[in-house]
Design brief:
Helix content is 18%, strand content 27%. The chain has 260 residues and is of the alpha/beta class. It has a single domain, classed as Putative cyclase (Glucose Oxidase, domain 1), CATH 3.50.30.50. α6 links the parallel β11 and β12. The model has no long low-confidence stretch (mean pLDDT 97). The structure holds manganese (II) ion.
Length: 260
């Protein structure tokens, strides 16, 4: 008998003393896919094509073929996704350590700021203010930026203007501080990327991708229901598909929250 009581943990799930919150959007063709400037390659959107549905193509069974980019819907970014992480060991979704797939989460509520300013940037002072209330961000944690962006319809979610997308995210100092000073496992957002929509103009460009993946850390994006997680104390399960040399993967993200 182990000193760690997984039986009690399982019983708490069965009895509803641990709530399992779905932090995932439904994978569907209408969910916005990232669009890069036209000179770059583009991600396939999600396609779902029926093979058979209790019909001549399969009288007793229903199944689909699916086509999707690695970075569609709610998904994880692995270190190999960015050039800064390309030479790190175990940097793709098939080789990332399984212990990185379950981790505690710190949720930073930026919903009011994001509602007032689509280009809101989370900075170090706001993270330090969060810590003054909730305690120091523990190494190995996810930091999840709640913006309530997941509650928007597709057009307002992508929020693309003539000069590109306008969505909130971390500034360069904040993400570097989280990686270097706090040793976070990764950074998660409700928006279409871990970086702000205008992050290509930052220094360095796309700083969340640059610093996270250069340090072997992970990104989660297009998360949902972050308003249902407490600031601290939840456990996030995020296990990507085991795609050979995969740079990322759609996945089901679960938030475990104790109800008492
Ligand atoms: Mn991605």
């Amino acid at each position: 008998m182990s000193a760690i009581d997984l039986g009690a943990f399982a019983a708490a799930i069965i009895q509803g003393e641990i709530e399992i919150i779905d932090l995932t959007h439904t994978l569907a063709p209408e969910f916005p896919t990232i669009v890069l400037p036209p000179e770059f390659g583009q991600s396939s959107p999600v396609r779902i094509e029926t093979i058979s549905r209790y019909d001549a193509d399969g009288p007793a069974w229903y199944w689909n073929n699916i086509t999707l980019g690695e970075h569609t819907g709610t998904h994880l970014d692995a270190p190999v996704h960015w050039v800064t992480g390309k030479d790190l060991p175990d940097n793709s979704v098939d080789t990332m350590p399984t212990r990185s797939m379950i981790a505690p989460a710190c949720v930073v509520d930026c919903s009011a700021q994001a509602a007032a300013d689509a280009d809101f940037l989370l900075g170090v002072p706001a993270l330090q203010a969060w810590e003054a209330t909730h305690g120091t961000i523990a190494g190995g944690s996810w930091v999840l930026m709640r913006t309530d962006w997941s509650k928007r319809g597709p057009i307002a979610f992508a929020n693309i203007g003539p000069d590109g997308p306008h969505t909130p995210g971390p500034d360069a100092d904040a993400i570097r501080w989280l990686v270097e000073e706090r040793g976070v496992l990764g950074f998660g957002t409700e928006t279409i990327g871990t970086d702000a929509g205008q992050g290509g103009h930052f220094n360095p460009p796309y700083p969340a991708h640059h610093y996270l993946h250069g340090a072997g850390r992970y990104g989660l994006q297009c998360l949902a229901n972050l308003d249902r997680l407490p600031p601290t104390g939840s456990l996030v399960v995020a296990a990507p598909l085991k795609i050979r040399r995969g740079s990322g993967s759609p996945l089901r993200v679960l938030g475990l929250v104790a109800t008492r």
